[in-house]
Amino acid sequence: MFALVAMPVNDPEHGFCRDCLTPQSGRTMRCAGCGSPRLARHAELYRLPLAHIDCDAFYAAVEKRDRPELRDKPVIIGGGKRGVVSTACYIARINGVRSAMPMFKALEACPQAVVISPDMEKYVRVGREVRAMMQALTPLVEPLSIDEAFLDLGGTERLHGRPPALVLADFSRRVEKEIGITVSVGLSYCKFLAKIASDLRKPRGFAVIGEEEAVPFLAGQPVTLIWGVGKAFAAALERDGIRMIGQLQAMERGDLMRRYGVMGDRLFRLSRGQDDRRVHPDGEAKSVSAETTFDADLAAMADLVPVLRALSEKVSARLKKADIAGRTVVLKLKSQDFKIRTRNRQLADPTQLADRIFQVGLQLLAREADGTRYRLLGIGVSDLSDDGRADPPDLVDEQARKRAMAEGAIDRLRDKFGRTAVETGYTFGKGRNAHPPEHLED
After folding, report:
1. Distance separating alpha carbons of residues 338 and 178, to the nearest angstrom
2. Which residues contact 32 (CB under 8 A, 6 or more apart)?
3. What backbone torsions phi and psi does residue 292 show, to the nearest 5 degrees?
4. 54 assigned binding-site residue
5. pTM for this one?
6. Closest to 52 (Cα-Cα) out of 160, 152, 202
7. How far is residue 1's CA from residue 33's CA, in Å, rounded to a whole number?
8. pLDDT score for 430
């Protein structure tokens, strides 16, 4: 009905109601149909095809859905006192809690918060449900993480009988009703601005940035809004007197490239809202990793090795489950002064075996065990591929072949009786650190 009747008479400036999708015939403050104040209006509302969808405080939202008694309480998802905040609900954020904040600081800011350890399996399952609903709208879905993705709905109007803006508003309603969490939508003509828009009205947001307003909108924003401008680069720009995107808009491309190299070209283009990147469906994972933050800083190899083994087994299990393998092993350490060390080594062949990941990680770790006390340890693999070429038989190292066969037997026992049914000597009887909770995952 909307496609046949509403479009010819409904000016995009008047828009539609996000709660009942009723077209609006004038610039009223509330919906003419249901009385809701949540109206979508924009001069380019029905012309823009590219969206960024982001779940609101995803981990916390899933926990609140499953535990209704937490609905009006501040909730923090994260590890123990030495861990960091993975996600905080909006009530906790009002009290000053932020993602990646050390847990002790989060609890200082919001001592009444309910702290819940992450349940990654549950979050992945819910994230896939949301992803499936996105893919029902368009085949052009590019995931960025477990809870966000770009969508290109260009050319889908005839399929849905509605313009992309209405399709996305309806999608938001259905996610809330069918899955029990909320999402925010950013709609624009390019990926850069769609992602910015999705952050403008959180939670339950729906924001639009059109092509005509892009340059003046960006002019008043800080340079940190540009993808790739982190703290260090922002500091470099500030030393040159550049704080706002409007200042970049006044500069020539050549001048920016002379000062900042390739990044100067990106500053020139994005400061003007120029982004020709396409939405690439089924974005592949770049790495698989697991890490944990200790309750107390650790320095001795005897304390670190059990953790490394347990994390290697977690990474291996994920690789095997996904039928993928990695060729580069990456070790991550964070010292007590929060400085991060990463070390990596490329293998001759891709692997998905816990033993190979652990043995390489052990060699990398031995070089870093110089008395430094560490608060975090992580291990992972990158350079991912399918498992067809993974772990070919080693004709030189007979023990490696035997360890691979033993690992296969252990996997079968664990599949039947649970992950703790069989342990290696590295982790058996080593306590909590040998069985670290999952905090972060690439």
Report:
1. 41
2. 22, 24, 25
3. -145, 150
4. yes
5. 0.71
6. 152
7. 15
8. 57
17 by DSSP, 3-state: which? strand
Kindly tell me the number of DSSP H helices and DSSP E strands found in the chain: 16, 14
- Specify whether the CB–CB gap between 59 and 78 falls below 8 A: no
Name the more confident of 107 and 393.
Answer: 107
What are the pLDDT digits (tens) for 36-68? 999 999 999 999 999 999 999 999 999 999 999
| 183 closest CA partner among 36, 51, 45, 40 | 51
Per the annotation, the verdict on 423 as an active-site residue is no
* Fold of the 287-434 domain: Dna Ligase; domain 1 (3.30.1490)
Q: What angle do CA 1, 135, 2 make, to 5 degrees?
A: 10
Triad 436, 325, 406: Cα angle to 5°: 65
Q: Which of 63, 142, 148, 407 is catalytic?
A: 148
- Domain residues of the chain, as ranges? 42-212, 214-271, 287-434
Q: Is 66 annotated as a binding residue?
A: no
- Rounded-to-integer distance, Cα 15 and Cα 395, Å: 69
What are residue 345's DSSP bridge partners? 329
CATH code reported for the domain at 214-271: 1.10.150.20
Q: Please name the fold of domain 42-212.
A: Alpha-Beta Plaits (3.30.70)
How much is the average pLDDT of 239-268? 93
Contacts for 92 with CB less than 8 Å, ≥ 6 apart: 60, 74, 75, 76, 106, 110, 113
Report residue 379 CA to chain centroid gap: 19
